[in-house]
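pasting D-3-phosphoglycerate dehydrogenase for the record, 315 residues
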Amino acid sequence: MKILANDGIDPIGKKILEDAGFTVDTVHIPQDELVNKLNAYDAVTVRSATKLRQPLIDACPNIKVIGRGGVGMDNIDVDYARSKGVIVVNTPAASSHSVAELVFAHLLNGVRFLYDANRKMPVEGAVNFGGLKKAYAAGTELMGKKLGVVGFGRIGRETAKMALGIGMDVLYYDLFEGPTSLQLDLSGGLKVDVPVRQVELPELFRESDFISLHVPFLDKPVIGKEEFALLKDGVGLVNASRGGVIDELELLKALDSGKVAFAGLDVFEDEPTPRTALLIHPKLSLTPHIGAATNEAQERIGEELAQLLIASLKK
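structre below
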């Protein structure tokens, strides 16, 4: 049986599949060529780049399993594929820690102005050192502040644990009833339960000093014009979930007015061509959708995806 890893797979995952007797092809097939070539395979794995929509699924009846290396499956018509008897699997737990660490990279970046300092130091550092030092003198500590987590799945909870670990208070919103505490696994095998508080969205928006979003994009932004009005003045925002969860045009207005002190964005409405106004804004910390892009996460994703494919294809 042949598997196409169209957006790549970690070598560990590839070896597991080959040891199980599968042929694994990692040569990327462009999106517009898949309709003519995908049916030569029994299974396909993707990340976020390749789209598997209804017409492609119809054109490739030989595909028995679709694997998504990562969490979100908005690039796959999941319900339709399953209605046609195609097994669809993903790896929601494997990248949680890596995404949470990136959230805190953006938060720490924001409260100490690193996103701007790293732009200006190469240009002005030798001629305006004192001026830059003064410009970045009003930093903020995260300890003791409130982090609002929107969406309390695996990534949201991992983000909350990091916040608790550095002394932040955590309040969160989720559609379903969630925990009242989280267990922190500390060095030396020490385990500590720390309280968290579930609230409704308006309360989270009003109380949070910083907000991290961990929800899929549905039919409208989670933070749009009306929600920006509820936020604390000087709030910091991070979006490492999906583009469109924050209204980008309203975000630009809020950054310009000072309503939002800074924002960290790993995802964009118009990937892979984000708005220029976002790319050049002096109050934005930016990364190119790399939440799960660590060696450790990719190893875990590859291994978990391989095991899921083996179990599905050998049924």
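Residues 295-313 form the longest helix (19 residues).
The domain at 2-92+295-314 is CATH 3.40.50.720 (Rossmann fold).
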